[in-house]
Structures are given as C-alpha cells and as structure tokens.
Amino acid sequence: MSTRPARSSKKAPPNLMSAVPAPEMVRFGSDVRDHLTTLKRRTNVQTSNVLCRWALCRSLAEPIAPSNLPASDTAVEMTWKVFSGTAGDLYWWLLKMRCYQLSLPLDEATLQTQIRAHVARGAAYLVGDASMRNASSLASLALVSID
Q: What's the pLDDT tens digit per position in 81-108?
C-alpha cells in the first residue's frame, strides 16, 4: 500500500512569465482620462501612472472580468515602464493570472484589452467611491482590518 499523496487532477497553470511579454506602451481612452482628472483633483496625487496602478489593482480585486469594453480612443498613453514602475513583472503576472483564472486566452490582444478594461473599471470604481478624498483614502484600500 502506497503512502504517496494522490495526484491532483487540476492542470498546472502555464508559465505566465514567459508567454506574452508586457507591452511597450499602454493606452487608455477618454473615460480613463476623465476619471484620472477627477482623482487627481480629489486625492492630490498628480501622476496618472500611480492612479492607473491603483485602478488596476482595485479592478483585479473583483472576482469577475470587467463587463464593459473600455473606450476605443486613445487619450492617455504611457510606456509600460512608466505605468508599472519597478513592479512591472508583478502587475503583468497578476493580469495574466486573472485572465488564466477566467479561462481567457493569454494572447497579446486579450491581454491588451484586459489591461484597458481593468484600468477603466478600477478608475470608475475609485471615482464612484465617495470616501476617495485624499491619498490616504487610496492607501486605506490596501489595509485590511483584523478584528
């Protein structure tokens, strides 16, 4: 009688780091630009890239994919390095992992659409959150209360 643990029938995720590299440029529509303008005024965080990172993370925290397609125009454009800062690999991996969890293809077109959609949804959520009044409000999103 073997004491080996049973093998999981779950398929291992693909190597998410090597498949499709992060884009050189990220582009967002006028919807994101308008939300960023509002968030800059409210939070006094003046850099779009930082606000876009918060928006991406806010959206990725939701269990489902964004349902609305992002605006197709290009009103905000930045390099991936500017968008992601020193955590570029982490943000790209998180996006690919979410796509994998939702059984979305891990191809360039899907990932580009998803980053636009997640930042657009996250920015809309942040603007719609009445408690977003300053930079501390953004930071409070990351803090977990242990009761």
A: 999 999 999 999 999 999 999 999 999 9
The whole model's pTM is what? Answer: 0.84
Q: Which of 117, 30, 29, 109 is nearest to 68 (CA)?
A: 117
State how far the Cα of 25 lies from the Cα of 118, in Å rounded to an integer: 16
Distance (Å, whole) CA 128 – CA 110: 26
Distances (CA, A) of 90 to 56, 86, 98: 12, 9, 12
48-60 and 88-101 helices, crossing angle to 10°: 30
First CA to last CA across the chain, in angstroms? 46
- Following DSSP, what letter does each residue of 62-105 receive, concatenated? SSS---SPPPSS--EEEEHHHHHGGGHHHHHHHHHHHHHHTT--
